[in-house]
Amino acid sequence: MSGSETALDALERSLTRLAAAVGLLERAAERRMRHDEARSNAEEEFALMQDDRSRLAVELDAALDRSRALEAASAEAGERLIRAAQTIGRILERMEPPAD
User: Fold this and answer.
1) Using CA atoms, how far apart are residues 57 and 68, in angstroms rounded to an integer?
2) pTM of the prediction?
3) Is the pLDDT of residue 1 over 60?
4) Which residues fall within 8 angstroms of residue 75, CB to CB, at 6 or more apart?
5) Is the pLDDT at 12 greater than 90, yes or no?
């Protein structure tokens, strides 16, 4: 009978070790799933940030183009105002009688 008890004891010890190994494997699988999920979330956030960066770059380029166009229009308007003021000055000179 002692031979069967040692066989049962050995079987119980093996089953205990197996249950412990399965528990470790389950915990490792859970950690891996959490890690993979966190990595997936980080990759998703990174992709969103890249999309935002691209969109902002396009918007910045458009704003710079508008700024350059406004600067050119402002310079042209300034030149036209100067010419208009000069023309008005010449007209006024012609209208005023010379002072003797």
Assistant:
1) 16
2) 0.52
3) no
4) none
5) yes
